[in-house]
Design brief:
Length: about 120
């Protein structure tokens, strides 16, 4: 079974940067569609970005130009570089993947907190 473990969250001032990592075990990430999601208190979970098996990416409008999703194939790790952070980016961030060959996300990590003040 695939397992996901996020890291890299923390507290940062507005305008700062963070890089989140999601270590993957049980599957080779080149075979997986993967994504980053976030959920702020009192709000619904929203998709931040996804990267397809082809390497093509898609980012939410709210983070375009600021966040970049990528895969580190050597480390079998999903990454997201977050620049120009805003207070509204404060949330619990989760990585997710699909094991159906598509992008129906069904496996989730435990989450990592990002706080922007």
């Amino acid at each position: 079974d695939v397992q996901l473990v996020e890291s890299g969250g923390g507290s940062v001032q507005a305008g700062g940067s963070l890089r989140l990592s999601c270590g993957v075990s049980g599957y080779t990430i080149s075979m997986l569609c993967m994504g980053w999601f976030r959920q702020a208190p009192g709000k619904e979970r929203e998709e931040v970005a996804r990267i397809y098996r082809s390497g093509m990416t898609r980012h939410a409008d709210s983070v375009k130009g600021r966040f970049t999703i990528s895969k580190d194939y050597a480390k079998n790790t999903l990454l997201i570089q977050m620049n120009s952070l805003k207070p509204e980016d404060t949330a619990m961030y989760y990585c997710a993947t699909a094991t159906d060959g598509g992008c129906r996300f069904g496996v989730w990590g435990q989450g990592t907190q990002v706080t922007v003040s």
